[in-house]
Amino acid sequence: MLKLRLSLITSYRDLTKTMTKRFNHIERKVKVNDLEINIVESGKGDKSVLLMPGALGSAWTDFKPQIEQLPKLLPNYTVIAWDPPGYGKSIPPKRQWGLGFFENDASCALDLMKTLGRPQFSIIGWSDGGITGLIAAGRYVNNIEKLVIWGAGAYVVPEEVKAFQNIRDVSKWSARMREPMEKVYGVERFAELWGEWVDAACAFYTDRNGDFCKEEVEKIKAPTFILHGKKDPMIAAEHIPYLRERLKGVRYHEFPEGKHNIHLRYAEEFNKLVADFLLEK
Questions:
Q1: Which terminal Cβ of the chain has fewer Cβ within 10 Å, N or C?
Q2: Which parts of the chain fold into alpha helices (H)?
């Protein structure tokens, strides 16, 4: 009996170690062309999903609940979160802007996943990462399996340009909003980098009639899930019907009291919805 109990205890410990290893994250840098891209990997599944952060965002600042929780909901997936070039720990290089910065991120994301041996993958994209995801799904139709976005639009409108300008001065932000980014970039560089982002985003309105990725949206074939915070102050309400009318077979879920960060504010519900969508055949 004692031997049996010891055997069961040993088996339980081995199982616990296996499960812990399975869901623990691994953070490392990957050489992608001439860049060193920082990624966080969690889970050990054969299928792949890439988490794309918002403006100036990184894996941990934007996706901590997803990195920690999604692998348990998606046992057949490896969850990968990245710091886009010039953001987070993917520095150097210094962030490059211009009207091609979303397209450059989409291309780099594809090259990253190919380097990892995962050329077919799904995307979970927030805000800027959602725009990058739309571009990737429209340009690399054979590579993107499913797309999940929120807080993103295919273009920018005057009221959003005004909103961007109104939040340019980060010293007026609350400490809760400002400090996570200051920890990543330092106080001075964060203020400088945010100003660069505001200029780059507004340039789409002045130089490209506001167009982020209208052409790419029309080409998307991947099943798409749009989640939306009804009270999101960062995007105009018109973006939701625009995308729903153009994306074939799109799924939609609304958080009535949600704002821009629904994946953080309602992490458990958000993660379950996303996992169910990704697991569907």
A1: C
A2: 2-23, 59-73, 101-115, 128-139, 158-166, 175-185, 187-207, 214-217, 239-246, 262-265, 267-279
